[in-house]
Specification:
The complex is a heterodimer of chains A (about 475) and B (about 500). Chain A is an all-alpha fold. Chain A has 21 helices and two strands. A two-stranded antiparallel ribbon of chain A has the order 1-2. In chain A, helix 4 runs antiparallel to helix 11 and helix 4 runs antiparallel to helix 12. Chain B contains 21 helices and two strands. In chain B, helix 17 packs antiparallel against helix 18. Classes of the chains: A mainly alpha (about 475), B mainly alpha (about 500). Chains A and B meet through helix 17, helix 18, helix 19 and helix 21 of A and strand 1, helix 5, helix 6 and helix 7 of B.
């Protein structure tokens, strides 16, 4: 077996990222102590951006497998990888000053981040249960460490512990489901599983058990109600720079494995998992939106908002149509962009010894800084799904998929819950624009943070004339989603 | 006819708004004001070719534009106007000029943001009236809430936060149900978001009723109709004067416009089926809300309730299904735009001087403010439907149309002329005439040049429409006739009425 038969060329971006992560790790050992961290930071950002460009340069138009079927390179994987790399780079920029002020600005932090991104890329391209699990664990272990990195902070250590225990539990459930699938089909490759299961009767008990276990594990990872308990604590307890990281790119990777497992592997069992997803999605949207109203902490509020957004994302998956999967992909891309920007804003407002994570910290921001206030405005309306923002089109495409799949009642319920959700986004705008300022801290963050943030937020509105192109891209990514 | 006039009218106010916003803080407020005035006048002049170039003989869409936007869902950037939407666009551009003048001295805090909000809102409102694609329409329809939400919340009165959140959530809930209806129509039409396709789409009675009700939620909240009107008095009372003017003069018209553009032509059978229900709600609004207006202590609240009552005429005129009724409804919408806007400005003038909107704070202001009193009495007369003012034309036509449908409707509706005169004139008697109430009132200054200018524009329009309504009726005639005929033809696959 030589490298040629392995089709290594397909995985060049992933390999480049892994190699660079190792180089940066070694560099950290030998570089001059004073310049080490900054050098590693900039190298990490540059690596992520160049990886994204490597993926774009070789954007696949059809799917091809590598490493004897362990790895697949298709348009969906490429789209996810570009978004994952760029968002992670952006989030690194947001977190730089925050990390520096808290002693987290260490080369190891960024190496962990790069390996997590590597895990996400492997998840996006997984064509085999083992690859999928490997990517998932690579990502998760790095994330646990990135939270615990803030080791002097009690909350951070606690949430790392919680995340680790529950994450391990979810992984073991996933492994159990996978082992059942292996037992039934004799294969770990997703396409083979799909073919083998095609003939199994829908009433088969062991198959049902396997599907339930897989769905539960995915729900855990996504943070769908009732498996959401860890989300608020982890979002709240983690250093904000890490929360920003967790809240953006991993959602896209999660989309990828949901799609690979449920549609790629268990697509014929659609009837089995659809009803479970309906309940998970509705509960997530309802609980996420309602509990968010009671929150006083911005990070917790965004965590509940994330739960409800995951519910919306599941609506697209459960519709069981190509249009629905494409809507979900579009939704998750838009959501991850918004979420990264939201935490970027919190990081912007935070300072040394000051976590700007209480809702009341936003009071009177409209007077302190009209520009930042306008960004909060756009972001909140986009999260609430009010036009003219990308968030509206994301919700529109998901709801359209639901109506299309004869699930109009789910669509109407989702819409009503979205109005409830609009309330807490409006309350944030109220704090920003209508209330007098409470604190008079001057806002000074580095220019690159400021410009990246502005670009990130205004993209949510400025993309509208070209949003049709992005939706078509998602459609193509899903349409060619074949094994 | 191929031109980009409508796009220009939609996007130039938005860009103007961004430019005004860029002038920054209040130290450059003067520049922001002048820029805003210059832009709003320029945009009004720009909108005049819409009238002069309009072909009154055809009910077809004119000034159309059509570009693909989101091809995956066949969403288009499609614009066009007919005799129903064109007058409303002119109303928007004219009133924006008035609002900019009205905010000139009154707004001293965050001036650039205030002016920018109204300019951006102007563009969005023109977008609502000009959209021929349901998603584009929806985008503008919802986007409009954002600047209004901020205007009430930032520059509003003491209870502004309650009022603005109520306003937002009420309208959002209604609109989202409309969105579901639009998505249903998209699927039923085999993948089209074109509003004109929906007009021609045959639908069975049962789905028509559901679609009608979903649209009804959105439009009834906007109009607003009894019993979903409660957000309006709150929003009006708390909004700054400019916000109240736009809210009453244009935003409420969007509900009426929605009925004309969606409910009647898309679901004609359901409209006939449920006409009794809508007419009943309209008559309750006309009579009951007029009685509510009678007992108000706060002038802004009184005018807000008067608006609801007058908008009841609009929905009544639309659902009697004849040309007089529909033309009357359109005239009533335009006339109400001028009159309610003017009355809110009058209250604003008083409020700026006395910081009170309560009727009891005033009395005998004709003595210190004779010019103001003349304007206020004129608008009050117009509000109670005096012949020779614009208020008469619409109400007369609607009553005429209602009489053809059922004389009792006409009799009940005519009652409002009595009630309308009662609450308006009673307010005038207590505020304008009588003994001078206090030293503060006696010391009031009369109108300054700026205030005379803004009120004269509206007074001129009220008299023009009242004395010579033909130029307005002419442009809408062909479209309204076409609509009335369209509604008479059943769309059910099987006979259902």
């Amino acid at each position: 077996m030589n490298l040629h038969t392995l089709q290594t060329a397909l995985a060049i971006p992933d390999l480049f990222l892994a190699a660079m992560a190792s180089v940066i790790l070694v560099l950290g050992l030998f570089a001059d102590e004073k310049k080490r961290d900054l050098l590693c930071y900039w190298l990490s950002v540059a690596t992520l951006v160049s990886t994204a460009f490597l993926v774009i340069a070789d954007f696949s138009t059809e799917s091809a497998v590598a490493f004897n079927g362990l790895f697949v390179d298709d348009p969906m994987a490429d789209l996810c990888k570009v978004a994952i790399c760029l968002l992670s780079a952006v989030v690194f920029i947001y977190g730089r000053d925050y990390n520096r002020q808290r002693g987290l600005f260490k080369n190891e932090y960024y190496v962990l981040g790069l390996f997590a991104v590597c895990g996400m890329m492997v998840m996006s391209s997984a064509n085999h249960l083992l690859t999928l699990y490997l990517g998932l664990e690579l990502m998760s272990l790095c994330l646990y460490a990135m939270i615990a990195f803030y080791r002097d902070d009690q909350l951070a250590v606690e949430s790392a512990m919680k995340y680790f225990v529950l994450g391990a539990l979810a992984s073991s459930i996933l492994l159990y489901g996978m082992s059942l699938l292996y037992g039934m089909t004799g294969s770990l490759a997703l396409p083979a599983i799909a073919t083998q299961l095609a003939g199994v009767e829908p009433g088969d008990l062991s198959l049902a058990l396997a599907v339930v276990l897989v769905v539960v594990a995915l729900a855990f990872k996504l943070g769908a109600v009732p498996f959401h308990m860890w989300v608020p604590d982890v979002y709240h307890g983690s250093p904000t720079s890490t929360t920003a990281f967790i809240s953006a790119a991993p959602k896209i990777a999660a989309f990828a494995i949901v799609l690979r497992l449920l549609i790629g592997g268990l697509g014929d069992q659609h009837g089995l998992w659809q009803e479970m997803l309906v309940i998970l999605a509705l509960l997530s949207v309802a609980a996420g939106n309602i509990i968010a109203i009671a929150q006083k902490n911005l990070k917790r509020l965004l965590a509940y908002s994330a739960i409800s957004h995951m519910g919306f994302f599941l609506f697209g998956i459960l519709s069981g149509t190509a249009a629905g999967y494409s809507a979900s992909l579009f939704y998750v891309l838009v959501y991850a962009t918004m979420s990264g920007a939201a935490f970027g804003l919190i990081l912007y407002l935070s300072g040394k010894d000051f976590e700007s994570d209480r809702l009341s910290d936003l009071r009177g921001l409209g007077r302190r800084s009209p520009g930042i206030a306008l960004m909060v405005l756009i972001l909140m309306f986009s999260m609430a799904g009010v036009p003219p923002t990308a968030g509206f089109f994301a919700k529109l495409s998901v709801i359209q998929a639901l109506v299309d799949a004869n699930l109009a009642w789910v669509a109407v319920t989702a819409v009503i819950l979205a109005v409830i959700g609009a309330y807490y986004y409006l309350r944030i705008i109220k704090l920003v624009y209508f209330d007098p300022p409470e604190i008079e801290r001057p806002l000074n963050s580095p220019a690159d943070h400021q410009y990246t943030l502005a670009l990130n937020v205004f993209l949510i509105v400025a993309i509208l004339p070209w949003i049709g192109k992005l939706i078509s891209l998602c459609n193509q990514a899903i349409a060619r989603f074949v094994y | 006819m191929d031109s980009n006039l409508l796009s220009l009218l939609i996007w130039s106010p938005v860009i103007a708004g961004i430019l005004v916003l860029a002038t920054g803080g209040d130290e450059r407020a003067g520049i922001a004001r002048k820029l805003a005035l210059g832009f709003s006048v320029a945009i009004f002049l720009l909108s005049i070719p819409l009238y002069t170039g309009f072909d009154t003989m055809t009910p077809d869409m004119q000034f159309t534009e059509h570009y693909p936007w989101i091809s995956a869902f066949s969403i288009h950037y499609a614009l066009g106007v007919d005799g129903i939407s064109m007058p409303l666009i002119l109303l928007t551009t004219l009133l924006t000029v008035v609002v900019v003048i009205a905010g000139w001295q009154v707004i001293t805090d965050r001036v650039a943001q205030y002016m920018a909000a109204f300019l951006i809102m102007e563009g969005i409102m023109i977008g609502v009236f000009a959209s021929l694609d349901a998603v584009l329409f929806y985008v503008f329809w919802e986007a409009m809430l954002i600047p209004m939400f901020l205007v009430i919340g930032i520059w509003g009165g003491p209870n502004r936060i309650y009022a603005t959140i109520k306003f937002f959530l009420y309208t959002l809930l209604g609109s989202l149900l409309m969105l579901v209806a639009i998505l249903y129509l998209y699927n039923a039409s085999g993948g089209s978001f074109s509003i004109l396709d929906y007009h021609a789409l045959p639908i069975g009675l049962q789905p028509q009723i559901l679609v009608f009700l979903a649209f009804f939620c959105a439009f009834a909240v906007k109009v607003p109709m009894f019993p979903v009107h409660t957000w309006l008095p709150d929003a009006h009372v708390e909004a700054p004067t400019g916000g109240s003017v736009i809210l009453a003069a244009i935003m409420l018209k969007m509900g009426g416009y929605g009925f004309l553009r969606f409910s009647l032509p898309v679901t004609p059978d359901a409209s006939h089926e449920l006409a009794g229900f809508v007419i009943a709600l309209s008559l309750i609004a006309v009579v009951y809300i007029a009685l509510v207006a009678l007992v108000q202590q706060d002038m802004k609240k009184l005018i807000a309730y008067s608006s609801i009552s007058h908008m009841g005429f609009v929905t009544l005129g639309l659902f009697v299904f004849n040309a007089q009724g529909a033309e009357g409804a359109m005239m009533q919408m335009i006339s109400h735009g001028f009159i309610s806007g003017a009355l809110f400005l009058c209250v604003g003038v008083l409020y700026d001087r006395m910081h009170s909107r309560l009727i009891e704070s005033y009395g005998g202001i004709a003595t210190p403010m004779p010019v103001f009193a003349a304007f206020m009495v004129l608008f009050a007369m117009a509000n109670s439907g005096l012949p020779g003012t614009s208020g008469f034309v619409g109400e007369f036509l609607v009553i005429l149309g209602a009489f053809q449908a059922n004389p009792w409707f006409a009799i009940l509706a005519a009652l409002t002329l009595v009630f309308g005169a009662a609450y308006t004139l009673w307010m005038i008697k207590r505020v304008v005439y009588g003994k001078v109430a206090s030293n503060a009132v006696a010391a009031l200054d009369d109108l300054n040049g700026r205030e005379i200018l803004m009120l004269s524009i509206l007074a001129g329009m009220v008299l023009l429409v009242g004395i010579w309504p033909n130029p307005f009726l002419e442009v809408m005639h062909a479209s309204i006739d076409n609509l009335v005929q369209h509604v008479e033809v059943s769309k059910c696959p099987v006979i259902c009425r």
